[in-house]
Records
---
Amino acid sequence: MFCKACKVNHVTRIIKVSFYHSIKGHPRHFSDLGFYNVPFVRKHALCDGDLVVQKKLNATIIFASHLMSNVFSYELERKALMDKREFYGATRGKRVNYVSPNDIADVVVNAILRKTRKREAYLLLGPSEISDKQVATLLSEQIGTNITYVEKQLDFFDNDTASLEMIKAAGFEKSSIESDTIRIIGREAESFAEYLKATDRMTRIEQKVLSVRTGRVYHDGKYAREEKEEEKKEEIDGEAS
């Protein structure tokens, strides 16, 4: 359906961010572990396969590992960080390879601006594996208050999040697999600590979580001003209703 729509609309260039575990024919045979039955993985794999088959589409596929920003992306985990100072997971102590969204963004921009375009795939990983307890420690240092990692059962999460936690808990992620980060953008992959410090590249949701306990102001006060303006508008709308 997607490729057919591209053909109808004369799309000839596609840059798609996919998931590390959706790579078909991966030497670790993740399909044997049942990861292709995970909806998130399977949808990516099917779309990636279609792009590979459609030879006329100039497609660049970026296979990225788990996003560092996922810590802030899901409402349940985000509220736990802000209200309870807790970080939830179900990794069973296994170490996870997280990749910075900044690395992905830089690779995407590189692909867009590249004059010589060809069909290719990139593999983007973080610099090393890290446990979620270590992630909680890094969050504590950045936010300025103690964040506790809490191990949960899979049924605590929604289906998609539980599936990702299941993949993490399998413990098959190794940084020994070569990432294309240096080859494409000429620098080392960003660490989790570096990602948390690069607040100027974060979304407002990420910034809000990181500033909730510290009162820090990012972007020379612009974020704080916009936040106050939004709160004032909500108060006016509430009075009007």
Note: Confidence is low (pLDDT under 50) at residues 25-34, 213-225.
---
Amino acid sequence: LAMLAEVGFSARGVSNRCTKFTTHAILWPVFIFFFVLAWMFALLFLVASLAGSDFCVKPDQIVQGLLYDHQDQFGSAIFEYVIYYISGCAVKPDESKLEAITTQIDEVLDGAHKLSEIMTDASIPQLQSQCGLDKAAATALDGSGELLHDATHAINRGWISVRQMLECRTFNPIYTTFVHDAFCVEGVDGLTWLYSSALSMSIFAMLMIMFRAGLYPAKRPSAAKAKNSSLVASLLTSE
């Protein structure tokens, strides 16, 4: 808008120290700076948009390839489950380790649960006679059995929740939302829009450069110069 104002002043023949200083010292350097910056960002957004488009042709395969290239940085079980989630549940991991852990947890919880049942089923006098405890200690032992019983059920429910959380249907939608929807759809569209905006600004900036009157005020030749020019033209014509 400031450059257009300068064009208007030049078209009306308004030229003074203020307009010259504003044009040469402020408007023109700032205009050139932002013009070059717009071209640079347009190129950057174009490259990023093209790279994102190429990535989004086969995003899952590309991500899996990157993971396989850096497989040594992951644990074996973690790597298998990450590939499992990214592949859309197609590449199933080796569940033998997880099953072995589940078996050990079940054995420990089963033993603890049986012990808690023995402790809670016995009465306070039985605990006193069998364990050689006074009434206060027997009561505390009975309360510990109830606490152990509740803890085994809580741990069992927690481990079941962990197994359900590790299923593909839990993590695959998260991956799909971030990679397919957020990056490949919204991200690439956003980069394309930014490129179009930066390119439009650059084109309009080039059009502004073509308005030479915005840089150089309009100058009309004096009457003497016009007369000399006409004489020279007549002499050349006569020769």
Note: The mean pLDDT is 76.
---
Amino acid sequence: GLKVLFIDLDGTVVHYGSFPSPPSPLVALPASATGKVGTLSSGTLRMLQHVADSGVPVVVLSGARTRTVRQRAELLPMASAFATENGGRVLRRGAGGELVEDEAWARHVASHEEQTRALAAIRGELEGEGWAIDTDDYKTMLRLQLSRSPSSLTPPDAARVGPHLRAAANLDAVDVRVACSGKRHAAAYLAGAYGGGAGLGECGFMCDDDNDVELAGEVGVLLVLSPCTPALDAAAAARGGELVTLRAPPGVEAHAASEHLLGQLVGSVLGMA
């Protein structure tokens, strides 16, 4: 059976905008550092709790800054752990519900000093080019704000960031992170911790964006939101036939897609309908 369910937040279970006819009542999240207010559906929360109650740990993998995730954690009491900054930092839930930084993971990331230096160096280069860069409460990555940067600038690709860093689109931004982090690396670490030494092939992942692609190709069960990015769509299509890939029907998007996919997981994969 499934050992761990990993979930992304923004664009996956948290959605932004106006939803006049949601599938279930919506719960507003605390505003992010940039002022955005997302919502979670009560149906999504109910099904995530159902998954956790069945014995499958729920673990959040997010590109958000740690401060934002801490604020949201109260609304996700079923989550056993949170990876923030695209896997750069890991927070585990303590016995009293508090979130405690995983020091072993922090040492792992800090040990790659050449990657930290590369991140500082490219930050200076990008600032010199005129990029609007968000570094507030980010320790292992930086976020390029596309809407606040000159449209003439080209976001950095793999060749530009070099071997010590990784870059990926994330909603309306581009995240540049140290290579030793990433959702795939954090997921492998947390699968071992919460899944009894499980491999990624024994886990599920619910996601929507380019920074999810690497992990999406390795999990046993993939839940793809609609709409998703072309890169994630291609990664989902390339998965082997022995792997389970769940998609929302055409036209089913945002909160309705979140609830649909979790309903499929609960009913057909976990057999808890």
Note: The radius of gyration is 18 Å.
